[in-house]
Specification:
heterodimer, A: about 75% helix
Chain lengths: ~475, ~240
């Protein structure tokens, strides 16, 4: 069986969701079924990889020139399927709240499934230029999801998102073409991640460095690395909340995955300093985002800046260049994806309860909607890195590796920025949830849709559990994913 | 291909790439939205011509394929698609605003082109000696000038053209450096370009309906507003 079968459910669901029908539940049900199916397929594949079995990509060996699955890619696949599923269930209630027309429901679900499809294709494909194409497709499939609310602000956000992402993609395209030329100059022809790794020591360093920087800047735009991050808080705050969960939770990570793929290749190139670039760009991103967090006035933008911060943390972890730090990076990828998607589910619940995005206009949230208030505080603590939650554990692993490697300054800066970000996040959220109500009028209780409440409970489980206990299969998977990054 | 015809082909290729650079400048400087699109079409045809000439030079069927794809998708399908998706919004605007005045813009563009030369020549030499010299620096210049177009333009159509021109630039360098990229990839990239046009067209139409303008560069309501600012409208 070809591994590309993973792409089938979302593609079929996208096609079927487009069918005009009188049944309002048709498209949402399709999306949930498709994402659950994808989750089952990827979980099965992750299980096989974690237990050390190799996966044959297809019946014909030539498939391996196009498609490949290893520890790192299956980890990303699993996260996309997981967040894709929770966000799909969350969408049912969230979307119904605004009573959209059947046509808009179809539009949402067609784009949702296509977006999942394009993200799943990133880790599956092994040919870098094809990966570039699906990266571009993720932008194009999600653009209409970002602008879904159709307000002037949402359209502005979608426009900035598309133009800046595609501008970055243009730069990255040139980078991938230079990379191909470098491979060719080394006398090799198999243009895959594995082929690049194989030829790395023979490729001209000038071309490799140029390609690396072009791809880092180009795709870094879409990851939201500072200073190319300006579009990210807009797009990640204006989109409907389940879409924000996808954008912040896994889209950024799956693009960062493409950049991470280059590090094992670059390590064989003399004088490339890929790690130094990662360290510097990562720290700049963490620091800038931490201080920008302090002055936000919109709680969805707060979580969006936190995404910029966490992408920086992952990049710093890889820049530390030790295998323990690589393990920390993969762990951080998992913990950020589950935690950040939870945060946006909580932000969505808050938005449904109070109908404003302004931090200053939200008071005594815990009295208006205890579920939304509790979820928001829990999500805030989790993403800011409070023990014993998931993100704390992976940040601790990274800093421990940093000290063991002798990167004292970088580790100290990282710790400082994380603390600043902690106070930024918690200061804002605390005021929203626990402050006294602005007037004495009786606060009416907001009722959240059932699917939203369900997802808030289910999505909280990994955030809680992964902080105290990493299940052995997941540990094996993380180890194998870190081994892919090893240099 | 015998050796005697090489200089002629190389000269013709140099002519095509030189004109390509001119169109890149033209896209930045022209004041008419339609003129921008026409220059882009000419640029795509020049890219196709360069690909065909290099196909002749290196006897590569693959480069003929690239030439064909570029000659069909960009000059024919892109304008057709734009008319289908957002004809009224894109074609009615005649004058377009620049953020900077045109002489300043051109001066910066010139500096970018010179920078591209110093970046491109060693890059081409690092691949191998047979890489046709003008393609790589001019391609990089096309890429940079396309990106620069995105920063100085406000109207939707020139912004879209800037994005596509960046891709043209990357390709002009690509056909010289990465001569045997798989045809599947080339076709996929061409299709992707059309998806860009479609999605951007849909977005522009929505912007025009909601905001009443296609000067998307002027949209600037999303930023960190200080908490003491006058209340702004809630989105819900």
């Amino acid at each position: 069986m070809n591994v590309l079968v993973i792409l089938a459910p979302s593609l079929i669901a996208a096609a079927l969701a487009a069918i005009p029908t009188q049944r309002p539940r048709w498209a949402p049900t399709l999306t949930v079924v498709a994402t659950l199916l994808t989750l089952a397929l990827t979980a099965n594949m992750a299980w096989q990889i974690a237990s050390g079995r190799a996966i044959a990509v297809g019946d014909d060996p030539r498939w391996s020139n196009w498609v490949a699955v290893d520890g790192l890619s299956v980890l990303i696949l699993l996260l996309i399927a997981l967040v894709g599923t929770t966000a799909a269930i969350y969408s049912i209630g969230y979307l119904a709240h605004a009573r959209p027309t059947p046509r808009r429901v179809r539009l949402y679900h067609v784009n949702y499934n296509l977006f999942i499809f394009s993200m799943l294709a990133i880790p599956l494909l092994a040919e870098p230029t094809l990966v570039w194409i699906v990266v571009e497709l993720t932008t194009l499939c999600s653009a209409l999801l970002v602008s879904f609310d159709n307000t002037a602000e949402a359209l502005e956000a979608a426009w900035k998102y598309v133009v800046l992402s595609l501008m970055g993609a243009g730069i990255a395209l040139f980078g991938f073409l230079v990379l191909f030329a470098a491979l060719h100059a080394a006398g090799d022809t198999v243009y895959t991640w594995e082929g690049l790794r194989h030829a790395a020591s023979r490729m001209p360093p000038l071309l490799m460095q140029t390609a690396f920087l072009l791809i880092l800047v180009g795709l870094g735009t879409k990851v939201g690395l500072v200073p190319m991050h300006t579009w990210l808080p807009d797009a990640h705050s204006q989109a409907p909340s389940p879409v924000c969960a996808l954008l912040s939770g896994i889209e950024t990570t799956s693009i960062l995955y493409v950049i991470l793929r280059l590090f094992p290749v670059m390590s064989a190139v003399p004088g490339a300093h890929a790690e130094t670039w990662a360290l510097v760009l990562g720290l700049v991103s963490v620091g800038t985002a931490a201080f920008l967090l302090l002055q936000v006035s919109d709680y969805k933008r707060l979580f969006a800046f936190s995404t910029v911060e966490h992408m920086g943390i992952i990049l710093v972890a890889v820049g530390l260049g030790a295998s323990a730090a690589d393990y920390g990076a993969t762990q951080q990828i998992v913990n950020h994806a589950v935690t950040k998607s939870f945060c946006f589910f909580a932000a969505g619940a808050t938005l449904l309860s109070v109908e404003t995005r302004r931090i200053e206009n939200v008071r005594a949230l815990i009295r208006r909607s205890p579920i939304a208030g509790a979820a928001l505080i829990f999500g805030g603590l989790a993403i800011a890195g409070a023990p014993p939650l998931a993100v704390f554990l992976s940040e601790f692993t990274i800093m421990k590796a940093g000290i063991a490697q002798g990167h004292y300054l970088a580790t100290a800066l990282l710790a400082l920025f994380i603390v600043v970000a902690f106070f930024g996040v918690m200061g804002h959220l605390n005021r929203m949830v626990f402050s006294a109500p602005s007037d004495d009028a009786a606060i009416e209780r907001a009722v959240l849709p059932v699917s939203c409440r369900l997802v808030l409970v289910v999505a909280a489980i990994p955030v809680l559990v992964l902080g105290v206990y990493v299940p052995p299969p997941l540990h094996d998977l993380l180890t194998r994913a870190a081994a892919v990054l090893s240099r | 291909m015998n050796d005697a015809t090489h200089p002629l082909i190389e000269n013709l290729n140099a002519l095509a790439t030189g004109l390509f650079l001119l169109t890149a400048f033209g896209i930045i400087a022209t004041r008419q939205a339609r003129g921008c699109l026409n220059l882009f079409i000419v640029q795509s045809l020049l890219l196709a011509a360069s690909a065909a000439l290099l196909g002749l030079r290196f006897d590569s069927a693959h480069l003929y394929g690239v030439a064909l794809v570029n000659a069909v998708s960009k000059p024919v399908i892109v304008p057709w698609l734009l008319r289908r998706v957002a004809s009224a919004e894109l074609y009615t605007r005649r004058e377009i605003d620049q953020v900077l005045n045109i002489p300043t813009t051109l001066l910066i563009a010139l500096a970018l082109a010179i920078g591209a030369y110093f970046l491109g020549v060693p890059l081409a030499a690092a691949v191998d000696a047979s890489v046709p010299t003008p393609n790589v620096p001019v391609g990089i210049a096309g890429l940079l000038l396309g990106a620069f177009t995105l920063t100085v333009r406000r109207e939707a159509l020139p912004l879209l053209i800037g994005l596509l021109a960046m891709e043209n630039g990357a390709f002009l360098a690509g056909i010289a450096m990465a001569r045997d990229l798989s045809m599947l990839v080339e076709l996929a990239i061409a299709t992707d370009g059309l998806v860009i046009v479609f999605i951007v067209g849909v977005l522009v139409r929505a912007v025009a309906q909601q905001v009443g303008s296609t000067a998307v560069g002027d949209l600037a309501s999303l930023k960190e507003t200080p908490t003491v600012s006058p209340p702004y409208e809630e989105l819900g």
